Amino acid sequence: MRADARRNHERLLAEARAAFAAHGTDASLEDIARRAGVGIGTLYRHFPNREALLGAVFQDALAALLRHSAELADAPEPCTALVAWLRTLITHAGEYRGLAVALMSASHDRSSALAECSEPLRAAGLRLLTRAQEAGAVRGDVSIGDLIQLTNAIALAAERTPEDPELADRLLTLTLRGIKS
Description:
Blueprint: H1 3-23, H2 29-36, H3 40-46, H4 50-57, H5 59-72, H6 78-93, H7 99-106, H8 113-134, H9 144-160, H10 167-179
Helix pairs in contact: 1-2, 1-4, 4-8, 5-6, 5-8, 6-8, 6-9, 6-10, 7-9, 9-10
């Protein structure tokens, strides 16, 4: 990438992060481009659609989530490690208004840019889930896909109920009661 194109790319990402944090994942792409000092055509040359921009924005968060799962992989209590990772996923999905819905949609569209982000997460979560299942702490019929959908649903419920800051934790606790052996 040429130096000017790289600068445009980085400015677009920085403005997208700020816009998504302030206005949610439905923030205006035109405003993001304008704030980055480029035209909408430049934004679309770098990111062909909103999902591609979301995927690029969340690459840093993805790396942090994968590092966290690697740290938890050898934890002495496999079920505790899985729960810690699920809590982290809920926190991540709640960082930007609308992200939980986008992640839930991406799970049904394997060709989307966000699905590309979710595949490494699924693999990381599957390792933690398998370890907890092998330890006898989690039922064998629990799938990582279901757990990820549940965490996104919990994040969405918490997003829609900001007056109840404890809701996500209560819903996760209820979910965990259902998956334990």
